[in-house]
UniProtKB/TrEMBL annotation:
Residues 30-61, 445-473, 597-637 are annotated as: Disordered. This is Putative transcriptional regulatory protein. One of its GO terms (biological process) is DNA-templated transcription. It comes from Colletotrichum spinosum. Residues 40-51, 447-459 have a biased composition (Low complexity). Residues 268-341 form the Xylanolytic transcriptional activator regulatory domain. Keywords: Nucleus. CDD domains: fungal_TF_MHR. GO terms for molecular function: DNA binding; DNA-binding transcription factor activity; zinc ion binding. InterPro entries: AtrR-like (IPR050987), XnlR_reg_dom (IPR007219). It comes from the Eukaryota.
């Protein structure tokens, strides 16, 4: 009874537990009403009425937030309770009961059958059967080296020392594997498959250069081998999902990495999303609340989570997919640079990983700000653009604050090229392009032509102030920065191509080049500059090189090639328009020549002079083969009796007068000279001479 009294006093908040109070509590349960507090009952009854006073345990200020639990199991499996879940509620009841019987040494303990993974659904032979598809050890070592050397860059997928230990186990003691090692086996297979995508980068010709994909008729025959390893890994996916361990998260993440250059917005996004969901099931998105996990496993969990979460979110942002988990639900620890905890060599490029995570957080903020434009009223849009420009300025400040000695932000063709540095630079430019490209199209619906001299930034409506302020308008700033970022991407890809080689399977390199070309194409529709043309030409060449061997990349490449052909047609039409413009200038001169009134008056005053009609000149006349501007035989042809098909000008409009002068001429000589270009001064001397005796050298 003493235990019961203590429980009731604690959970009902009643200080007195006499018979009347207990009767009131029991009645409140039966009638579904709240219990009045006996202290001050009369005042409470008068103020609120009987049965409307809440007990302290039911009041809003006694609400208790669920504490999460991340329970380590075996084989790197953890059970995450979640907040306000059925599991958490049942565990709170369990704790309550255990508190009730805590003082009774011989009281019954709360025991139950723990069940966390449906292992009975696993296949018994998949793990062992997949061993037969492994290549020889030396091939596996080469492909694993290619993976770590070229594919990992600024992210973390698996610890190298751990992988080497697992490879030793698989090749030297395969009998020690169990069905719970299915995640490990899947990781090994898919890493080997990814290695085939990057293997060509470790080949060199006799001059030490990376071979170009375009230089070979069948450049990447190893893709067939890679697909075989990928398919073997995919056969293990059902069991990988069932076991749902840390290795399961890594395996699905790596499959997403392999399919990223093949189908980023489809298959890869699904696998990345699956990796995130498996990580959530293991509580990897939350800060671990205890000390029950080995420091290496804990750091691995953090790094794998941030890689999966960031990659999935970046792909979703660039390909228009919704957010799979809100940022407010994530409080996992950021990766820490702790080389002392690793059994082997510490993972490299931790500063690059941290910078990449910060960069993608900036991308998320910018993407959220852009999404708000869908809900803005018209008068709210300028303020939204200003906020976006401020975010862009903050991004620039962050980039400038990165130490040059660590990240090598401004490489030169002669400086050593480090792929993680270049990838960070490409991702930085990618965020800048993403922030500015929504505003790159002119706001008016009029069709822009290639002959227009203004850029999209110039075509925007500037603020209603002075014209000089248009250059500092937030919209123009965003567009100008977007274009500058696109040109920087092409420059960065050139550096990669001329040094360590372009990685055709790198989503960062291919997608950055593709996005930059699309921005440059919009500029080519607006204006012509040598820098834009050169960037477009080089970018197309590099994109063709990276798209070799991949059907998805070839499809995207064909679209950009179609854009390029359309621009070429616009350029051709523009050249035709220029020729027509010259013809129009000639017709303008003709009109001036025909409508010259003073010359007509002068002709009427000189009526005693006989005007010579235009004879049917032969080609010899214009080529100087018949004298100096006159027929050599002195014969005149009657008016209208010209060569068949050749029209003669009327007598009132003579071509040459008897005095050898050109008549009539436009009185406005400046206007006349402007038609022929700068530096032309009309003169009438030597009309019968010139070059080879021809008029004006004709």
């Amino acid at each position: 009874m003493a235990y019961m009294e203590r429980l009731l006093a604690h959970y009902t908040g009643q200080t007195r537990l006499d018979a009347e109070t207990l009767k009131t509590l029991a009645d409140s349960v039966e009638k579904g009403r709240t219990v009045p507090d006996r202290s001050g009952a009369a005042g409470a009854d008068a103020a609120m009425g009987t049965g409307e006073v809440e007990v302290k345990s039911q009041s809003s200020d006694s609400f208790q937030v669920d504490e999460i639990t991340v329970q380590p199991l075996e084989n790197n499996i953890t059970h995450y309770s979640g907040e306000f879940s059925h599991w958490n509620f049942s565990m709170r009841i369990k704790q309550w009961i255990e508190q009730c019987v805590n003082d009774a040494p011989d009281g019954p303990k709360t025991q139950f059958k723990e069940y966390y993974r449906p292992e009975e659904l696993q296949s018994t032979s998949n793990t062992v059967a997949s061993l037969s598809s492994l290549p020889p050890r030396y091939v596996a070592d080469f492909l694993v080296h290619a993976f770590f050397n070229h594919a990992e860059t600024s992210y973390f997928y698996v610890e190298r020392y751990w992988l080497q230990e697992k490879l030793n186990l698989v090749y030297e003691n395969p009998g020690a594997l169990t069905r719970r090692d299915v995640g490990t086996m899947c990781i090994i297979l898919i890493i080997i498959a990814i290695g085939t995508q990057y293997a060509y980068l470790d080949s060199r010709d006799e001059r030490g250069r990376v071979p170009s994909a375009a230089a070979e008729s069948n450049p990447f025959s190893e893709d067939t081998i890679g697909i075989m390893f990928y398919q073997q890994a995919c056969r293990l996916v059902p069991d990988v999902i069932t076991i749902s361990s840390l290795e399961s998260v890594q395996a699905c993440l790596l499959i997403g990495l392999y399919t990223l250059p093949l189908d980023a917005s489809g298959l890869s996004y699904v696998y990345l999303n699956l990796a995130v969901k498996l990580a959530i099931q293991n509580g990897m998105h939350r800060k671990y609340p205890g000390e029950g996990i080995d420091p290496v496993i804990r750091e691995t969990r953090n790094r794998v989570w941030w890689t999966a979460y960031t990659t999935e979110k970046r792909i979703g942002t660039f390909h228009g997919r919704p957010v799979s988990i809100a940022a407010s639900e994530v409080d996992a620890e950021m990766p820490a640079d702790r080389p002392d905890i690793w059994p082997g060599e510490a993972p490299p490029n931790t500063p690059h990983m941290l910078a990449t995570l910060q960069l993608n957080q900036a991308l998320s903020r910018i993407a959220h700000q852009i999404s708000l434009f869908k809900t803005f009223e018209k008068h709210e849009i300028p303020e939204g653009v200003n906020r976006l420009a401020d975010m862009k300025a903050q991004l620039h400040n962050w980039w400038n604050s990165l130490p040059e000695s660590t990240f090598h932000k401004d490489p030169t063709p002669t400086s050593p090229i480090f792929r993680p540095d270049m990838h960070l630079r490409l991702e930085y430019c990618g965020v800048r392009m993403f922030a500015g490209r929504p505003f790159i199209f002119p706001r008016d619906s009029a069709r822009s032509t290639a002959s227009s001299s203004g850029s999209p930034a110039d075509s925007q409506v500037p603020p209603r102030t002075s014209s000089s302020n248009s250059k500092t308008h937030p919209r123009s700033i965003l567009v100008a920065d977007c274009v500058d970022a696109a040109l920087t991407v092409i420059e960065t890809c050139r550096l990669l191509r001329n040094s360590v080689g372009l990685a055709r399977a790198s989503y960062t390199e291919f997608s950055s080049c593709r996005a930059a070309l699309l921005v440059i194409i919009t500029q080519c529709l607006q204006k012509k500059t040598d820098r834009l043309r050169e960037a477009l030409r080089d970018g197309m060449e590099m994109l063709k090189e990276m798209s070799a061997g991949g059907e998805s990349a070839k499809s995207e490449m064909s679209l950009i090639e179609a854009f390029e052909r359309a621009i070429a047609r616009l350029d051709a039409n523009d050249d035709i328009s220029a020729k027509e413009s010259d013809y129009a200038r000639f017709k303008k001169w003709e009109m001036l020549w025909k409508t010259d009134t003073p010359a007509q008056d002068a002709q009427s005053e000189r009526s005693h002079d006989t005007s010579l009609p235009i004879p049917p000149h032969s080609s010899n006349f214009w080529r100087g083969m018949g004298g100096h501007g006159h027929a050599s035989n002195g014969n005149h042809v009657a008016p209208g009796a010209g060569r068949q098909g050749t029209a003669s000008l009327p007598p009132a409009m003579p071509f040459f007068g008897l005095d050898g002068s050109l008549s009539p001429m436009p009185p406005a000589l400046d206007e006349f000279s402007a038609m022929f270009g700068n530096g032309y001064v009309p003169g009438f001397e030597g009309l019968g001479g010139g070059v080879n005796g021809n008029w004006m050298g004709l």
